[in-house]
Amino acid sequence: MPDQVPLVISPSEIDEKSSTPLYQQLYDILRAKIMDGTLGLNTKLPAEQDITKMLGISRITVKRSMNELAVAGLVRRQRGNGTVVIYDASAPTIRGSFETMIDGLTRMGLETTVQLLDCTMSSASPAIAESLELEKGASVQRIVRLRKLNDEPFSYLVTYIPDDVADAYDDSELTNQSLIRLLERAGHAPISAEQTISASAAEPAVAAVLGVAAGSPLLRIHRVMRDAKGRPVQNITASYRADKFEYHMRLNRSDAHQVEWQTEK
Length: 265
Prior knowledge:
Number of domains: 2
Structural class: alpha+beta
CATH superfamily of the largest domain: Chorismate lyase-like
Radius of gyration: 22 Å
Order of helices and strands: HHHEEEHEHEEHHEHEEEEE
Number of strands: 12
Largest sheet: 6 strands, antiparallel
Low-confidence stretches: 96-102
């Protein structure tokens, strides 16, 4: 049974004169309470009409705030059962880093568990072939994995490996070995990478695997990794749950008058 924890919000916390819409103000208040654990996992939120009376705002405003929380993957809304918090503030969050990317990726492989969803050999699409510097239609291994943190879905990964590189390891090892370790053993240890980070909305199939609502925000990282000879050996697209992963980057300036910031080496 969901826990019933009193929701304490003062009407003074809602500013009708603010340029920020009322639904956004309520969303921000509830999100903060969920993220800091005040409204913990499995807490049942008050009914929409009760929040309406508490704050003196319209039920439509409350309903939209609740729907936004559901889209963000923080609550589950079910007719007849109300709105329940599904975000666990006590669960650990993985932090990625530009400064120690390769070491961090290796460490991530050791701190999380992997479920292999699919592994097949196929002809590379034009885009994949170009990124791996292969001939059009060349054979590649396509690997789809679900990574978990404390048994909770954490990231959805789609990886392409040139077939001659993939021949150096057994498919079964993909469930209990870091892919970076397998590439190292194959003689193609990644030493550099080019990556793009963006935000995306969870497609229904991916959302179902990650345990979030369709349309929930995901952090999407696309990365092409190269070995010591400069050969691309891995093309990976990783979709991370926004509530389980953050990316950290340290910037500095050589002096106070420098206009551009640079990543710290």
